[in-house]
Structures are given as structure tokens and as C-alpha cells.
Design brief:
Layout lengths: L2 H5 L5 E12 L2 H7 L1 H21 L3 E5 L4 E5 L2 H19 L10 E12 L4 E2 L1 H12 L4 E5 H7 L8 E6 L8 E7 L3 H19 L3 H5 L15 H15 L3 H11 L3 H9 L4 H17 L29 H15 L3 H11 L5 H9 L5 H12 L3
Parallel strand pairs: 4-6
Antiparallel strand pairs: 1-3, 1-4, 2-3, 4-5, 6-8, 7-8
Helix pairs in contact: 2-3, 3-4, 9-12, 11-12, 13-16, 15-16
Length: 378
């Protein structure tokens, strides 16, 4: 065998492969707080990932500082490995103090790549890297092609996020997300959403979760991908995975940055609104425009003597009117909000129910219209 033949295997080859990227959530922040401890935690988790990668017949091609670049010949093995990584890390973290826990994001794509003994290159690699940055903490993002390959082979609780424009990728990529850390919460929420939308509004849940919404409405000044991701993750931290759907709706409907903030704030419980608005406004200020603070409630709108709790208890017909009016304002998530409000605050009067629902509306003008329609006898 000549020298050229001996060197040929080292030059690499093209192949169809499943590429898996991982990284640590808030790595820079953790490093600035306690560099030595963070490095030990990262090493601990990367060693675990490496063992699981080998167990699932994969190969670690590169350490990326706070993550791994892994290569699998099987998409099923790649996703199974990613699931096991996140499950194992989440289970172990439950027994640890907060200071010893790390969360990771994982992205997986199946594509034609160029593989060498120490690296892998090509669009398939770039897409996997971008998918990783789209994932929630503790989550896994899959491209459509990966999901189609594995959905009948693995038991997945995946949420369709729709087509996403990924940095430096020419075509939008439809993606799915699995969030194991909030698995039961996501499943229960989807089940409840499916039941209430179907029964109360006649809408299938998949029609809500699979809406291909325009990421920015015509009137909304362009936001960078980094700012959009940061805002979406901030909302996810407050209300969970359903935030991805609600965030896309807000982007589609907002006509300014201030309107976007108001729409996002309207999705939050009262005790989280001020903090969220401060953080979101700071993000938009850095991007070039800072929205003004939300206007205070307009004086003279509330009745001076609201009925006492239990007085004028809402009947099913009135609840249905509330659902219809709220759906007009914020979309098909409205029946779920009403159901949760009634279950968490039993004994509300009609007036109190109206005021509780108004907290979910994005601006005073819509609040006044909502109140007027419902206080007017049908």
C-alpha cells in the first residue's frame, strides 16, 4: 500500500449523518461568578455525555468548551442518546444544590456532511448548531427531517415550533422541541388546551401549535434573531413551553416594539409583569429602541362599588360570552385562561371575573372595550 493510500482515510468522506450539538445554559454568567467551580461542573457533565454517546454508538468529534459535537450514523440513536442525556442530568440535578446544577441545550439535524477523524463539516453541521441555540434550557430541538425519521420509533413528547429562520442558513427550517425538565407540565398543558379549545371554541390544539405565523408583522420594526430568542426565552422562564406559541402570536400581531412588550406582559401573572417588562425593555433598548413604560390604568373605568364575591355569579352563558370576547382579543388560548381563572378563584362575581380576565389584555383600549361589551346586557 502506497503513501497516498495510507493517508486517504484521514482525508475524510461525505456521508449522511445525524449531528448533535450541546452547550451549557448561561455558561458565561456561571464562569464570571465562579470560574473554577463552573469548569468542574462542565467537565462532570461532558464526561457523562461522552459515555452515553459511546453507549448509543455515537462518536464525540469535538469539545466546544462548554459542549460537544457528536456524530451518529443513526438518527434514532442520536435522539435516544440526547433524551438519555437530558433525563440523566435532570434526575441527578434533582438531588443537588442549585449551585451544582447545570442545564444544557441540544440540537440535532440529519444531513449530508463531510467527516474526518477529528471534525465534521457542512450545512448539516451548521443547522444542528443553530438548532441547539433555539432549544430551551433542558430541551432538545430537532429538525423536521429528524422528527420524521424517529417519530414512529421513539416515544416523544414534541412540540412543533414551526419554520424558523436560522442565522446563516438560507432556507427556513421547521423544528420540533422536546423539553424534559417540564415534560409533565407541557403534557398536561397541551391536554388541557386541547380539551378546552375543542369543547369551548371548536379549535383543534394542533391548529394552534402548528400555526405558521409571520415572525414579524409589517408594522413591527425588525428585531435581530438574538433579541427575539432572548425575549422568547424570558417568556418561557415565566410561563413554560406554551410561551413559544404565544410569543409567535405576539410577534405576528404587534405593530411596534412597545406593543410587543405589552402583548408579552399580558400573558403573565401580575407578580411577574414588572420584572419581565424591565428585562424585556432593557433587551429592546440594547437593540436600538426602548419602549415606554406601560400606561397606568385609565381613571374612571372601574365601577366605584363592584359587587361582592358571589353576587351575580357567572352562569354558563355569561362564561361563554367571556370566552368569545377574550378569544377575539388574544386568540384561542382564551378558553384555557378562563378555565384556569374560574378554577383558581371560585366564587367570583361577574364583575370580578371580568376584571380578572382584563389582566390578560395587552392595553387599556382593549380592556375598556372588553369590559363594555360584557357589562352591556346581551
Amino acid at each position: 500500500m502506497g503513501p497516498e493510500q495510507e493517508q486517504q482515510p484521514l482525508q475524510g468522506h461525505r456521508t449522511l449523518a445525524a449531528i448533535v450539538f450541546s452547550d451549557v445554559v448561561n455558561y458565561s454568567g456561571r464562569m464570571s461568578h465562579n470560574e473554577e467551580h463552573t469548569l468542574k461542573l462542565v467537565q462532570r457533565d461532558l464526561e457523562l455525555m461522552t459515555r452515553l454517546c459511546e453507549q448509543y454508538e455515537g462518536r464525540v468529534l469535538k469539545f466546544t468548551g462548554d459542549g460537544l459535537l457528536m456524530y451518529f450514523t443513526s438518527a434514532v440513536q442520536a435522539v435516544a442518546c440526547a433524551l438519555e442525556i437530558q433525563k440523566t442530568i435532570a434526575a441527578t440535578a434533582a438531588t443537588m444544590p442549585e449551585s451544582d446544577r447545570l442545564q444544557h441545550r441540544i440540537g440535532i439535524h440529519l444531513g449530508d456532511v463531510f467527516v474526518s477523524p477529528t471534525d465534521v463539516m457542512g450545512d448539516g453541521v451548521n443547522i444542528a448548531a443553530r438548532l441547539q441555540s433555539e432549544a430551551e434550557p433542558g430541551g432538545i430541538c430537532l429538525s423536521q427531517i429528524v422528527y420524521d425519521v424517529v417519530k414512529k420509533r421513539l416515544a416523544l413528547q414534541a412540540t412543533y415550533l414551526g419554520p424558523r429562520e436560522l442565522k446563516h442558513i438560507q432556507e427556513s427550517i421547521p423544528i420540533y422541541q422536546i423539553v424534559l425538565a417540564a415534560q409533565s407540565k407541557t403534557t398536561n398543558l397541551k391536554s388541557e388546551l386541547e380539551r378546552t379549545l375543542t369543547e369551548s371554541a371548536g379549535v383543534e390544539v394542533e391548529d394552534v401549535l402548528k400555526q405558521e405565523l409571520n415572525p414579524v408583522s409589517m408594522g413591527l420594526p425588525l428585531l435581530s434573531e438574538d433579541v427575539k430568542k432572548a425575549l422568547e426565552r424570558l417568556l418561557i422562564e415565566a410561563i413554560g413551553p406554551i410561551a413559544s406559541v404565544l410569543f409567535q402570536q405576539a410577534l405576528n400581531q404587534a405593530d411596534s416594539r412597545q406593543d410587543l412588550i405589552e402583548r408579552l406582559v399580558a400573558q403573565l401573572p401580575d407578580h411577574l409583569r414588572s420584572s419581565f417588562q424591565s428585562h424585556a425593555s432593557a433587551m429592546l433598548k440594547d437593540s436600538g429602541e426602548s419602549p415606554q413604560p406601560l400606561p397606568p390604568p385609565q381613571p374612571g373605568i372601574r365601577e366605584e362599588a363592584p359587587p361582592a364575591a358571589g353576587e351575580g355569579t357567572p352562569d354558563p352563558a355569561f362564561v361563554k360570552r367571556c370566552e368569545l370576547e377574550l378569544t377575539k382579543a388574544i386568540g384561542p388560548i382564551a378558553p384555557l385562561i378562563i378555565q384556569k381563572t374560574l378554577s383558581q378563584q371560585p366564587g367570583l362575581s361577574r364583575h370580578q371575573l371580568i376584571e380578572a380576565l382584563i389582566s390578560h389584555l395587552p392595553n387599556p383600549k382593549m380592556s375598556e372595550s372588553f369590559r363594555r361589551h360584557l357589562l352591556t346586557p346581551s
